[in-house]
Design a protein that fits this description.
This is 2,4-dienoyl-CoA reductase. This protein has helices at residues 38-49, 79-94, 128-148, 162-167, 183-186, 188-201, 227-240, 264-272, 289-292, 303-310, 321-325, 329-334, and strands at 10-12, 15-17, 21-23, 54-61, 99-104, 152-156, 206-212, 244-248, 276-279, 316-319. The chain is an alpha/beta fold and 353 residues long. It has one domain: TIM Barrel, CATH 3.20.20.70. The longest helix has 21 residues, at 128-148. Bound molecules: flavin mononucleotide (FMN). Flavin mononucleotide (FMN) binds next to strand 4 and helix 11.
Length: 353
């Protein structure tokens, strides 16, 4: 098996990456009261030093009252947290890496079990004023990312969190202009977020959006049931200013629609003509939900992945748990040291090495 395709440089606008491997965003919730620590800086710098092409940070939240569901999820606003992030990006650059924060609002997913220190109220629908401020805060965090020297920004539009709650008819029951019967109508919030970010960061700064059909509330949920519905979802986002679509699946090899073996990233690229990132069980046998149940999984080879990459289905490949387990995963793959790759152990979720 040749992994050469993974080590071709990637260029889009003024973003230049040395290879096709992206570190997937992974919440660590170890930033004291929202401020990234030196340990977090070292954790990302270690992966930059071991040749990860592009690092996406763990989800880091915007300046809204209910944007996070765990106290030690990092903020992406406020002097102290932004100074922490400045240390992170400087260390990543010093180690030859590139990085962007994944900016996030968890929406209506908080529970008092997650967040014992605050009094939980039942979530209520956002007012139009809330919506306008939330859009403005997404833009403010993206602008801060650019000002701090990050290379890209990723909008978390996946997995059943705020932006995805607007996309999904099960959670979006609004009767105003942010609701509607069609996916296109329910995409308006995301489109407005992307437009505001584009206006804040200018034309050249790369905007990635992470999307998923599946929701943590329902793994079999689908926003787009046909390629036509997927067009209705993705084309307005492209028009609003998205550069790269990050297409989250639990297993990258699963076909999105019947009659073709293209996965989500494959369809997103075909529909939009934009670069796409695939993700989901790269280098591992079992998918990531098991990790939250305390289960590990064995390593797997990269033959199917590189076949699809060589075929041009997608441009970049995000790797989650394998890189959580082993900061040197990319380096080992590059050097052909496949026997040194590790199985994923659930215990690594608790460490920050
Ligand atoms: C510990 C952990 C934390 C995660 N946190 C996030 C997150 O903050 N944002 C996000 O979009 N996905 C998150 N994910 C999903 C990963 O980005 C990725 O899509 C998933 O783990 C599948 O990739 P893998 O099979 O290579 O691990 C998380 C996954 C894990 C294991």
């Amino acid at each position: 098996m040749s992994t050469e395709s993974l080590f071709q440089p990637f260029k889009y606008k003024n973003l230049e990456l040395k290879n096709r491997i992206v570190m997937a965003p992974m919440t660590r919730a170890q930033s004291d009261n929202g401020v990234p620590t030196q340990q977090i800086t070292d954790y990302y710098a270690r992966r930059a030093a071991s040749e990860v092409g592009l690092i996406l940070s763990e989800g880091t939240v915007i300046n809204r009252p209910a944007s996070k569901n765990l106290q030690n999820i990092p903020d992406f606003y406020g002097t102290e947290a932004l100074n922490g992030w400045k240390n992170v990006i400087d260390a990543v650059h010093e180690n030859g890496g590139k990085m962007g924060p994944q900016i996030w609002h968890v929406g209506d997913t908080r529970s008092s079990a997650d967040y014992p220190s605050i009094e939980m109220e039942k979530a209520s629908a956002m007012t139009l004023e809330d919506i306008q401020d939330t859009i403005a805060q997404f833009a403010a965090s993206a602008k801060s990312a650019k000002d701090l020297g990050f290379d890209v920004v990723e909008i978390h539009g996946a997995h059943g969190y705020l932006i995805d709650q607007f996309f999904w008819d099960v959670t979006n029951t609004r009767a105003d202009e942010y609701g509607g019967k069609t996916l296109k109508e329910r995409s308006r919030f995301a489109v407005d977020v992307v437009k505001a970010i584009r206006a804040a960061v200018g034309e050249d700064f790369t905007i990635i959006i992470r999307l998923s059909q599946w929701k943590q509330q329902d793994y079999s949920a689908k926003l787009a049931n046909t390629p036509e519905e997927m067009e209705e979802w993705l084309l307005p986002l492209k028009e609003a200013g998205v550069d790269i679509f990050h297409c989250s699946q639990r297993r990258f090899w699963e076909a999105e629609f019947e009659g073709s073996d293209l996965n989500f990233a494959g369809w997103a690229k075909k529909i939009t003509g934009q670069p796409t990132i695939t993700v989901g069980s790269v280098g591992l046998e079992g998918d990531f939900m098991a990790a939250f149940g305390g289960h590990g999984t064995e390593k797997a080879d990269l033959t199917e992945l590189t076949k699809r990459l060589e075929r041009g289905d997608f441009d970049l490949v995000a790797v989650g748990r394998a890189l959580l387990q082993d900061p040197e995963w990319v380096k080992k793959v590059k050097e052909g040291k496949m026997d040194e790759l590790q199985d994923f152990k659930a215990e690594s979720m608790a460490t920050l090495y």
